[in-house]
UniProtKB/TrEMBL annotation:
Family the UniProt entry places it in: Belongs to the class I-like SAM-binding methyltransferase superfamily. MPBQ/MBSQ MT family.
Transmembrane regions listed in the UniProt entry: 306-329
Name used for this protein in its record: MPBQ/MBSQ family SAM-binding methyltransferase profile domain-containing protein
Key word NADP present: no
Region annotation (SAM motif I) ranges: 117-126
UniProt-annotated stretches for the region SAM motif II: 162-175
Source species: Ilex paraguariensis (yerba mate)
Residue segments, region SAM motif III: 203-216
Superkingdom per UniProt: Eukaryota
Annotated keywords: Membrane, Methyltransferase, S-adenosyl-L-methionine, Transferase, Transmembrane, Transmembrane helix
GO biological process: alkaloid metabolic process; methylation
Listed CDD domains: AdoMet_MTases (cd02440)
Segments forming a coiled coil: none
Length: 340
């Protein structure tokens, strides 16, 4: 696995190595766009290695503070009310394969079957099936706000011993210093306040515990950026790092993942594009202080506005259902070894 390191807050530095065409890293803080190889990315202040500084340009995204159409708990609830019917048959084959899942969970360091693990936003339990390869099911809790997704998880025989509960990723029903591992895959894109969710991840972990958050990456292709900003949250890689560090995590690392038939191309973004990990260095709550929640789920909504947002978000989602089909066809047509 190729590895990339980013040094300091002044420059983006790339360890000498081959850079595949079309693989973009976008830095809003640094006002640059850089191309790095798929692998492990981390932020460090000092490290001794020969590096090559790249001059890059910014490709901006819609601010996180402006939620997308399905980046609301209520819209996400109804979105999954229908998507849960076909989730395991439509989403997983194109965006979240077993190989991707196992690769993304590797940095979580699930080495002990007696670990206490929480799978936040666990949905139908697809990621949980990867977790229980390494941890006893009785020690795993699946949490999701969608009862329809959880109903699918309950039907899976290997997950019968897991605790399955409804809950909010931004307000977890677990005590402080509770779990050895926090896993969340394909959930952050629906969080109105991702920093709050990562702060909660810090709180529920024991000292020395590790959080592993798996989520989308922001596209660089203009049309994909447009639909991403309509649909749900596609964070940039450095945004993940910043959220983890602000919450108090140490040893923060980011590992890039993707379907094999994407052949390294990330210009359209990926619904499952990176696995970010961090270690909790101290017991107790996160040192980060936040204000009120970004979304009040009890607040009444205008039915017309809700319906319009839901339809527009669903249309944007359709684009990202078609993208993997397009990429798979290109992989079949374009000879191996040629960039696509």
């Amino acid at each position: 696995m190729a590895s990339s390191m980013i040094n300091g807050a002044e420059n983006l530095n790339l360890i000498s190595g081959r850079t595949p065409k079309g693989l973009a890293f976008i830095g809003s803080e640094f006002h640059r766009k850089c191309f790095l190889s798929k692998g492990l990315v981390s932020y460090t202040r000092n490290f001794n290695a020969k590096t090559r500084t790249l001059n890059c340009s910014l490709s901006s995204s819609r601010p996180v503070s402006q939620p997308r159409f399905i980046q609301h708990k209520k819209e996400a609830f109804w979105f999954y009310r229908f998507l849960s019917i076909v989730y395991d048959h439509v989403i997983n084959p194109g965006h979240w394969t077993e190989d991707m899942r196992d690769e993304a969970l590797e940095p979580a360091d699930l080495y002990d079957r007696n670990m206490i693990v929480v799978d936040v936003g666990g949905g139908t339990g697809f990621t949980t099936l990867g977790i229980i390869k390494h941890v006893d099911a009785k020690n795993v809790t699946i949490l999701d706000q969608s009862p329809h997704q959880l109903a699918k998880a309950k039907q899976k025989e290997p997950l019968k011993e897991c605790k399955i509960i409804e809950g909010d990723a931004e307000d977890l029903p677990f005590p402080t210093d509770y779990a050895d591992r926090y896993i969340s895959a394909g959930s952050i894109e629906y969080w109105p306040d991702p920093q709050r969710g990562i702060k909660e991840a810090y709180r529920v972990l024991k000292i020395g515990g590790k959080a592993c958050l798996i989520g989308p990456v922001y596209p660089t292709f203009w049309l994909s950026r447009f639909f991403a900003d309509l649909w749900m949250l596609f964070p940039k890689e450095e945004e993940y790092i910043e959220w983890f560090k602000k919450a108090g995590f140490k040893d923060v690392q980011l590992k890039r993942i993707g379907p094999k038939w994407y052949r390294g191309v990330r210009r359209h973004g990926l619904i499952m594009g990176c696995s970010v990990t961090g270690v909790k260095p101290l017991s107790g709550d996160s040192p980060l202080q936040l204000g009120p929640k970004a979304e009040d789920v009890e607040k009444p909504v205008n039915p017309f506005v809700f319906f319009l947002r839901f339809i527009l978000g669903a249309i944007a989602a359709t684009y990202f259902v078609l993208v993997p089909i397009y990429m798979w066809l290109k992989d079949q047509i374009v000879p191996k070894g040629r960039p696509i």
